[in-house]
Amino acid sequence: MDYFAYRDGVLHAEDVPLDQIAEEVGTPAYVYSRATLVRHARVFREALDVLPRRQIAFAVKSNPNLAVLKLLSSEGFGADVVSGGELERALAAGMSAEGIVFSGVGKTRAEMLRGLEAGIGQFNLESEEEGVELAALAAGHGFTARAALRVNPDVDAGTHGKISTGKAENKFGVPYDLAAGIYARLAALPGMDMRGLAVHIGSQLASLDPLERAFLKMGELMRAIRAQGDSVTHMDLGGGIGVPYKAGEVFPSPAEYGAMVARVTADWDVTLMFEPGRVITGNSGVLITRVIRVKPGVTSPFVIVDAAMNDLARPALYDAWHDFIAIRPSGETITANIVGPICESSDTFAMGRAIDAVKPGDLAAFRTAGAYGATMANTYNSRPLVPEVMVDGDRWAIVANRIDPAAILAAERVPDWLAE
Ligand code: LLP
Fold this sequence. Notes:
- By secondary structure, this protein is of the alpha/beta class.
- Helices cover 28% and strands 25% of the residues.
């Protein structure tokens, strides 16, 4: 459920008409609803109340905006970070270091040291090599690194290939069959406190079945590791629950997910950790855009909007669907291709889609843009970096400025030997 709805024929975010934000901030712009974020955070948290010991680390990558992090921090969420930059954001948002989990296959020494100095709760190790390096670094600086070993369970998540992470051929985690041995060797290193296992098989999962298969395998591995005499106190079950992108789609609910986890982990006797991203932020945001022009096409007209693949990359990268709705629909519909102004054919949001009839100057919104939207934006074609707005009831604020091409140009330098 979200708080984007039509009122008097105008799409609102909570109590604010989106055309008002478009007029004042310009387009394209991301708009988040605070009430929706809070609702999703609470629904997820309450779904896990059935579990005796649990910890939630929001996947910062899905929406790293400082205001979003601050909000989730006040809802009791920690953070799952994958870079030094995300780590600093989580700390800047006031998240406790204890609640921060550092994932990622390529943590540098500098990033690991920063995590140790900040006293983060857990490093999720993606290889034995990384664990050996972290232990040496920690021991050398007088720290003990709390860590979990990420395991690749070789389970097909049944999602888009580019966001699937738990198959044997993917770069993530250590092979399932080698994990117990690696765990024992890492647990014996000075500077290292191995406290458990981690798994994350992919994103935008439409079914709980692959997650359940992966968790069952992790339970078996946990028992084998305990049987060899090593302790396991934490199990990190990752993120991945999908959300509906098309009106009417039904996805597993957080409550069903919580019930499945409770059933599978009933006798585990661990603190369970979770790294939700999209399920919290996805439907909490829209990308508002203005139609620049409509031009005829061979089969359908092209609706050219001022948002492009640099602002919302998901359709170009994953053939993702985002509902496109007019901010003031006329009641008519047309079949059209929705494209941005960028000079490549991948800058296409939809082909031959039935949409609200729009004409040049009209405003529209791409829905379900709160996750992996602004965070993946760039400035390709020397376009501005898209701004972000948060609505709260009848008030709203810019939570990230538009960054003009001039500011980016100002950061570039021409070397002396070219400045003739
Ligand atoms: N934990 C780990 C270790 C992850 O790699 C991810 C996402 C998550 C948690 C959060 O997953 P979620 O709950 O959001 O599914 N850019 C792509 C999604 C990439 C996901 C990467 N990892 C997209 O736009 O669909």
